[in-house]
C-alpha cells in the first residue's frame, strides 16, 4: 500500500503528538519504559491506522488483532488507544496514580487491548494461537504482534515462530522493534541476534527489513502478505526517538524525564510540526 503525501504527513504529525503526549504521561505518572515507547511510536500509529478495527465496537468479529508483546512499553500504546476513543482522557490522566485503570503493563480490562502482556516472550505465541484459530474458522482477519528485540532471548518466541511456519499462518505479521538496546545494554553484547533476518527466514517467515520511523516503509511492509508464509518485519528504530537526551541510551530503558527535559521535547516537537505544515 502506497501512502499519499497528505496521508503520510498526517501520520507523521500524529506520531509527533503521540511522542509528546507519551513523555508528558510518563512525567506526570512518574515512571515508564520511555525508551521503548518512543522507538515503537511510529509503528503503533501506522498499525492502528492500517488495520481494521472499530473503537465503538471493540469486539467486532471482522476486526484485525494487535498484541503488544513488549508490554512494558505500554504508555505509547495507551496514548494511541486514547486517540481512537478506547481510553478516556480521564483514564489517561490517572496513569500512575493509586487504583488507576492504566498500569505499567496492558490488561484486557482496558478497552481495545487484546491480551495481557508484559511477561516477555509470550506475545508471539498468543498471536500464533489467534491466527491459527482464525485460519481454522476460515476467517480473513489479520493478527499483528509487536515484540522487542531484547525479548527475543526468550526461547518461547522461537517455538512460536516454528509453529507459525508449520501451520502456514499467512494471516500473521510479526513486527520486531529493532532498536538494538535492552535494559542491560546492546543486544549484541547481551545476547547476539544477528543475522536476525536470516534467522527469521530460516524459521519459515517471509522477512523484510525497514526503517521503523518511515511511514512509507512501514505501510508497505504491513500490506505485505505471502501466499503460504507468515510475515516478519524487522523495523530498525532508535530507542528514545524524539527525546534528544534519551536517544540510543540504554539508561533510558526505564526513566522519568525532568520538567526541563519535557519542555525541551515539547519545543522540539512543536518545531517539527511547523516544518511539516
Overview of this protein structure:
Helix content is 43%, strand content 12%. The protein is globular. Helix 9 links the parallel strand 6 and strand 7. The model has no long low-confidence stretch (mean pLDDT 97). With 277 residues, the protein is an alpha/beta fold. The strands form 2 sheets. Strands 1-2-3-7-6 form a 5-stranded parallel beta sheet, sandwiched between helices. Belongs to the transketolase family. Pfam families: Transketolase_N. This is Transketolase. It comes from Candidatus Scatomonas pullistercoris.
What are the main properties of this structure?
alpha/beta; transferase activity; two-stranded antiparallel ribbon; Transketolase_N; 5-stranded parallel beta sheet; single chain; 277 residues; 7 strands; 10 helices; globular; metal ion binding; thiamine pyrophosphate
- Give the overall shape: globular
Order of helices and strands: HHEHHHEHEEEHHEHEH
Query: Order of strands side by side in the largest beta sheet?
Result: 1-2-3-7-6
How far the N terminus sits from the C terminus, by CA atoms, comes to 24 Å
Sheet-strand content, in percent, reads 5-15%
Mean pLDDT: 97
Tally of strands: 7
Low-confidence stretches: none
Structural class: alpha/beta
Largest sheet: 5 strands, parallel
From the alpha-carbon coordinates, what is the Rg to the nearest angstrom? 18 Å
Helix count equals: 10
